[in-house]
Each structure stands twice: as C-alpha cells, then as structure tokens.
Amino acid sequence: MYVKIIIDQDAKALDKVFEYVVPADMDISIGMRVYVPFGKRILQGFVVDLTENCEYDQSKLKKIISKIEDFSAIKPEMLDLMQFMAKRNHLKLASILRLFLPAEMREGKVKELFETIYHLKDGFNDDLPKNAKKQIEIINYLRENNGHGSSSELAKFGYGAINTLAKKGVIEKEKREIKRTPFVLSAESKRVTLNASQSHAVETMVEDKTYLLHGVTGSGKTEVYMHIIENVLSQGKNAIMLVPEISLTPQIMSNFKARFGDLVALLHSGLSAGERFDEWKRIFSGEARIAIGARSAIFAPVENVGVIIIDEEHEQSYISESNPRFDTHDVAEFRARYNHCPLILGSATPSIESYERAKQGLYTLVELPVRANGKELPQIQIVDMMSELRAGNSGIFSNQLLADLANVINNKKQAMIFINRRGYSSFLRCRDCGYIAKCVDCDVSLVYHREDNRLKCHYCGKQFKVLTHCPICGSENIKRGAVGTEQVVQKLQEIFPDVKILRMDNDTTSTKNAHQKILSEFKNTLPSILVGTQMIAKGHDFENVVLVGIVDADQSLYHADYRSTERTFQLITQVSGRAGRSENEGKVVLQTYSPRHYVYKFASNYDYKGFFRKEENIRQTSQFPPFTRILRVLFSDHDENYVRELLKMCYTEIEKLRDVYGEQIIYLDAMKSPIKRIQDKYRYQIMMRLKLDKADEIEDKVFSIVDGLAKTSVFFEINPQNLS
Ligand code: ADP
Ligand code: ZN
Ligand code: ZN
C-alpha cells in the first residue's frame, strides 16, 4: 500500500502531496497523522489518500516511520473542506489542516490526563496485622467512600501501604481518564413558551438552505437556537453554534450547559490547553454533540451535522485576519451543504452584504420583529456635544447623561457606560506641532496605559516611557487624545463617590475567569455602573440595567473604512439592546459631535431597513462591496528592497489584465501599506476593486501571477475588514 501525505510544515516548497510506502505490518487509514522521513529529518504528516499503486518511482519511495495517534484525527469531511479552502482562499494545505486540530495536540504538548483509582475488593475480611496502621486507615477510608479512592486522595496514607494492599490483592487499581471540563457558572434552565414569530422561525428553518434570522435585540434568538438544536438532537444529529468571542459570555455558556448538560462542548480562547484538547476529544468521539465556540469552532470534528448557527453574523471577528485568512461564513456554508442541513445566520443588525443576499433570494429571510417579553425597545436620545461645548461644558459627560445617571442611582438601578476604546486614553499628541507618539517598529500610534504609566504598542507589545515633552518641537504641551475606560471610571467615581463603578475592558479581563467575576459583582450590586468597551455591548442580559450611555459614538464613524457607518449602526443597536430588558423601562443617551449624520437618525429609530436602503444606495453609487469586490494582496518581508521589487514585478503583470478585462477592473494600484512595518517586516500592497461579473476569474489570474513570482509571505484578502 502507498499513501499520499501532506507534510505538516508551513513552507511553500512543501505545499504538495508526497508519496510514502506503508510498512506491511502497519494499519493505516486516511486522516491519520504519521511520522515520515524527509531528507535528513523526521517530520509529521497527514495521510490524505491510500492507494494500491504509486505514481512516483517506487524504488525511491520511503516508508512511514510510525503513527502519531491510532485514530484518524482528520475526518473525511474535513479533507474535502481542505480542498475547498485551498481553492477559495489560496491557502497552503498544511496551514488549513492545522486549523482542524488543537494546536497543542499537533505540537505534542498535551495528552489525556489519567488518574489511578483504587477499589476495595469484595469479600475482604479484615485480616490485616494489628500494627499495619496505615493499611487499616486506607481500608477505613475506602469503606467510608463507597469502596473507591483516587491515588491523590490516598496519597496521605503513603504509597508503601497502598502498594502492599494492592500486592495482597485487597485493593484493585484502575486507570481512568479525567476530562478537564471548562468552568461554567451554574444556572437553572428556565423553559419558556415560544411566541408566534419564534415558533414560526423554529418551524421554518429546517431545510438544506441558508437562513438570515433578523431579530431585534431581546427578541429571543437564543431561545430559537436552543429549540432548533433540541429538534436536531432528537433526530439523532448534532449541532455547531458560533458566537463571537466577546459575546461568548458566562451567561450564554451557562444557559446552554443548563439546557443540554454534558452534550455541550465549549471551545473558546479562555480554555487551558488541557481543557481545549479534552473538549475537542469529547466532540470527536461523539460524546459531546453540540459544539459551541468562537470562530475556530467551525472546524470542530462534529459528524452528522444537523444545523450550523452563526450568531451575530455581522461581527467582523468571523473573518480571520491573520494567516490563514478565511471567512467563517464560507466554511459554514460548505459544511452545511456537505451535511445537507440548514445554516442559520442570526443578527439584530445583519451585515449589508448578508441582507443584500437575502434581498436577492440567495438567503431566506426570517424575522423576529418584537422583543420576546413584549417590551418596547429603549428610547435613544441623541445629545449634541458641540452645543454642550458652546454652553461651557467641556467634560466627558453631557448634563443629560449626568442627570440620568443620578436618577438611576436614586432608584437603586444600574447603568452601563460604553466606550469605544481601550486604556486610560489613547494616543499622545503634541498640541503645538501635531506630533503623535508612534512605535519605532510598527509605525502605529502608541497607547497610553495609566496602570503602569507607559506607552504600549498594541501590535508588537513594545513598551516605552511616557514623554514629558515633544521630541520634534520641544513643547511640553503634549497631551493624551480620546477618552478611555479608566478615565471615565475615575471621573464618575469623583462625581458619584459612594457608587460601585466597575470596569470591563481588555486590561481588566486578561486573567482567567475575570469576566465572570466582574459581571457577577455587577449583577449583585445595586446601584452600580459598569463602564466598558465592545465587551459590554453584546449578549448580556441584566434586568436592572435601565440606562446605557454611549460616550463617544463618533469614534467608530471616522475610520478610513467603507464599513465604518455600518459598524457604527451595529454598535449603537447592540449597546442599546442592553437597556430595559425586563420590567424596567430602558433609555439610551448617545453623545455625538455630529448629531445630524444619517446613521444616528436611523439608529435612534431602530430603523434597520431604512438604514439598509440608504447604505445600499451609497455603496452602489460609490462602487463598494457588496456591489464590487475589493482584493488586497499584501506583501511583507524583512528585506524592504526585495518587497519593493516584487511589488513592481507583480504590478506590471497584473496591469496587463486590464487589456483583457478593461472596465471590469475599477481600480488598481500598488502602494505602501498604511502600517509600513510590523515586527520589523516591511509591508506593501496591491489594491484592486473589481466588478462582480468577472471577479472570480480575475482573482484566480492575480493569484497565479503572484504565486509564480513571490518567494516571501503574501496574503490575499477579499473585502478586508481592516486596511492597516
Ligand atoms: P436576543 O438574543 O434576541 O437578543 P435573548 O435570546 O437574549 O434575545 O432573549 C431575551 C430575553 O427574553 C431572555 O431573558 C429570554 O430568556 C427571554 N425570552 C426569550 N423567549 C421568550 C419567550 N417566548 N417568552 C418569554 N421570555 C422569553
Ligand atoms: Zn511638538
Ligand atoms: Zn510595535
């Protein structure tokens, strides 16, 4: 027998299939991982095919050395997915296969955890010598514990005594695997009766199609998902549900655990290596039948999938921005079609792209138009910060927001203050010459962190001392820019000294379970205020929150990104959805310096459709996605001359495509990337905007041109989320 193997190395030269001989006494199946000789080295590989005959010169083929595991870690569906992603995203085969396994498993850093359990054998009649005190204590201990004890429990009696008892045949040893299960807050599973639109949604979304579930915040989408999953399980099938990392709140996790118990496996970044491996194995073996997690859970080894759900489908975190780059929607679509099951995309604010697809009939639109509890959505009041300024208030908070906060506190309720930022206040700027402190390696502005009084680069992590004067003009008038969570907490604490004010952002949640701690403290304190970034915008369901303040709504509006208006609309809707979710009526105060921007009009009226029509119109006339396709080819290398040469060569070739495709290429240019350097690699790019008719074809041509010329890392991005 012969096998075709993909070597587990991320090198361009190895990005193909190699043939090996299977030793006569080795039992090999497709999908297994093996050790193979490669040149002078021994490397790991994935078996992707098994054949009777070989294509290559048989006398030159080498033998597989050994298996890494005894099972096929890569299932057949995933091998098909690999082919699909290689073509669709222009990725190396090994880099795709790596996505399908826990990293620590591939690196051999994590193994099953076993413990030894001792059982007291039946029929033991206390015939131990009187002086064998330790042995008698062990027997007594085991009797008190139904005859069983683990080696760690018995360790205190000494291993000598344990071994003696084992040798005498009084106790029996058993090796048992311990599953490391992630910690989840316990919750009761409350059963609700679905309302009419929820029932309709559950009954409708059962076919082998893609559905767009547009449900206002609080419309009970989670309940719909749970019912659908229940139905799928009862048909003997399994489910995958994706939730953005930041909305994978303790609340959501405990709700699912409460409803489905150990059938749920959780996959998110907060897990330890051991927990991740064990959860993966529970899914792999079929013991867990529902995989819930962030983006990478789309690769969970679930078989016989009955539904795939992508909650908050508009979230940009579903697009992987580091290598290998892929769009989770595409992968989910592939797996749903492979398994002939529904794919459900849920959101209160669908992406313009998805809604457009629903409009064109590619997706089936299903709506949940009202809140599940029948409550109105909270009123959104727009506060003009320019007129506050003119009236002499140059602080962070408008008078309206302060008055509403005072009211909340008097009524012993809760408020959330949303800030679109991280750290104390972001960048350091010279007020005299405009100099901005930047990272010497990455060319991005540094962020000031008050906790350790340092400037930090968020790209490479470098830290710098805080400047006291401007290095360009010498002025001491060097100040911090926009507001951050810490500053807001500090100011609020000055104004409301007796009120509990909590903060939730990347800095306060870096340790394990920090999220849970902050949220449960917030939940249990009345009155209280929770100040936070994007992290507090989603998924949380606190019944006592009656006020949401958005301090600087404009922050996301003026990014150089065609999606920034869409993002702002989404953010406002999501944040507002946190208020008034129960009996208490909610309110939102939105502070802006551009109160007349159309996004605020539509957002404050919860008019998604109105916003969609306006935005659709703008995208169409300005020729932006979803009506065109943007392609970015990003080149990066330590050698700046080399990247520039490569860029020139590629550009010259790509430009020739204009002769063939003419008008189809709306825009083509080569340039430095906005961030010129990251981790000492120089970054250059080719940007293209293409009409949709021939976009696939042109994309393939560009790919083969670049692939033929480049000897360094090149990334292809379609409609990139972030143009840094
Ligand atoms: P969404 O995800 O759409 O924002 P949730 O799923 O968080 O909404 O539901 C909002 C609240 O409504 C939750 O507390 C949920 O338990 C409750 N809920 C959902 N469906 C119903 C229902 N049919 N009747 C009563 N309460 C419901
Ligand atoms: Zn200066
Ligand atoms: Zn840096």
Task: Give short descriptive properties of this protein.
724 residues, alpha/beta, 7-stranded parallel beta sheet, globular, binds adenosine-5'-diphosphate, binds zinc ion
Describe the structure.
The chain is of the alpha/beta class and 724 residues long. It contains 22 helices and 30 strands. The protein has a 7-stranded parallel beta sheet with strand order 11-12-10-13-14-9-15, with helices on both faces. A 6-stranded parallel beta sheet has the order 16-26-25-17-24-23, sandwiched between helices. It is globular. Bound molecules: adenosine-5'-diphosphate (ADP) and zinc ion (2 copies). Residues 430, 432-433, 435, 470, 472-473, 475 line the site of one zinc ion (ZN).
Q: What is the overall silhouette? A: globular
- Main sheet attributes: strand count, strand direction, barrel closure: 7 strands, parallel
User: Approximately what portion of the residues adopt beta-strand conformation?
Assistant: 15-25%
Number of beta strands:
30
Q: Bound compounds, please?
A: adenosine-5'-diphosphate, zinc ion
Rg, alpha carbons: 29 Å
Spatial ordering of strands, largest sheet: 11-12-10-13-14-9-15
Gap from first CA to last CA: 50 Å
pLDDT average, as an integer?
Answer: 88
Into which percent range does the helicity of residues fall? Answer: 25-40%
Class from secondary-structure proportions: alpha/beta
Tell me the number of helical segments per DSSP (H or I, 4 or more residues long).
22
Low-pLDDT runs: none
